[in-house]
Write a structure and sequence with these properties.
With 314 residues, the chain is an alpha/beta fold. It contains 13 helices and 12 strands. It folds into 2 domains: 147 residues, D-Maltodextrin-Binding Protein, domain 2; 131 residues, D-Maltodextrin-Binding Protein, domain 2 (3-Layer(aba) Sandwich), CATH 3.40.190. α12 crosses α13. 46% of the residues are buried. This is TRAP transporter substrate-binding protein.
């Protein structure tokens, strides 16, 4: 599929296309709409960001590849997917990396987070900001996941991320990468037995219609990243860059507020829909993934130094 990332429309307006895979009720989509409105206001109508949700322009990975060749301007991507293109960012996919929300925010909004946003530039991908994607937990069709043993033998949909795949393996499951847009059907047809995601994604995707058990073990807090193709970014003048970056930063603040409200609403609606929500002890899950950290220490010592930096941050 060929799309055009940026062009001059009528009256010399610069149009930048933004494609993503989420539905229009998702807080991240709402934040990107907010950003597009801000860009229009700041530029006095000279820059327009057109948003194409629901995988209209491709899957998450396909959209990133379109950015790399400059055929698409912007997209939202999970940092777990982005690690295939910018390997250092996979540190954010480490399970139980953050002590709490305050620690996570300090990492993402500080020097470490800013450094990771620019990690993909050599791969033609520039991070603009992080969006809160909450904490990921397991949902399944047949039973709650109270311990790692409950995952053994199950086929669990996972992100296209080596770290996520290895984490699922450490719990004794069979990791099965499936694109987000195809997951509902995969759950219905038994291609996978369950998946893992945050409460708003479970609710807005309607996966709860198939999976009636949600086990909130909160194994990862993988953020979403708003990225722009450097092939587009480098065509912008300094003022256009400032408008877009400022709008992205403001949209991130707005999205964090939306996200907190959406999590509460999602829990309410999931309970109404008859989903059994449990909060298992995290200790056995934490113990099960310690081998991942030991492996990273040996195989990826530079990344382990980043882990230590993150853990030491007060």
């Amino acid at each position: 599929m060929l799309v055009f990332s940026t062009c001059k429309g009528p009256g010399g307006v610069r149009v930048i296309k933004l494609g993503h895979g989420l539905g229009v009720t998702h807080p991240v989509h709402e934040a990107m709409e907010f950003m597009a409105k801000l860009v229009e206001e700041k530029s006095e109508g000279n820059v327009e960001i057109r948003i194409y949700p629901n995988q209209q322009l491709g899957t998450e990975r396909e959209l990133v590849e379109l950015l790399q060749i400059g055929s698409l301007g912007m997209t939202k991507v999970s940092s777990a997917t982005l690690e295939s293109f910018a390997p250092k960012i996979q540190v954010l996919s480490m399970p139980y990396l953050f002590r709490d929300d305050a620690h996570r925010d300090k990492v993402l909004k500080g020097d470490i987070g800013k450094q990771l946003l620019l990690e993909g530039e050599k791969y033609w991908l520039r991070g603009l900001c992080y969006y809160d994607a909450g904490k990921r937990s397991f949902y399944s069709k047949t039973k709650p996941v109270d311990t790692p043993e409950d995952l053994k033998g199950l086929k669990i949909r996972t992100l296209e991320s080596n770290m996520a795949i290895n984490m699922i393996k450490s719990f004794g499951s069979s990791p099965t990468p499936v694109s987000y847009g195809e997951l509902y059907t995969a759950l219905q047809q038994g291609i996978v037995d369950g998946a893992e995601n945050n409460p708003p994604s479970l609710y807005t995707s309607r996966h709860y219609e198939v999976c009636k058990f949600y086990s909130v073990n909160e194994h990862t807090a993988v953020p979403d990243v708003l990225i722009i193709s450097t092939k587009v970014w480098n065509t912008l003048d300094e003022e256009e860059k400032r408008w877009i970056q400022e709008a992205a930063d403001e949209s991130a603040v707005f999205q964090y507020q939306l996200w907190a409200e959406s999590v509460e609403e999602s829990y309410r609606e999931l309970k109404k829909a008859g989903v059994t929500i449990t909060f298992p002890d995290q200790k056995p899950f934490r113990e099960a993934v310690e081998s991942l950290y030991e492996n990273v220490k040996v195989v990826q010592p530079e990344m382990y130094k980043m882990v230590e930096k993150i853990r030491e941050l007060e």
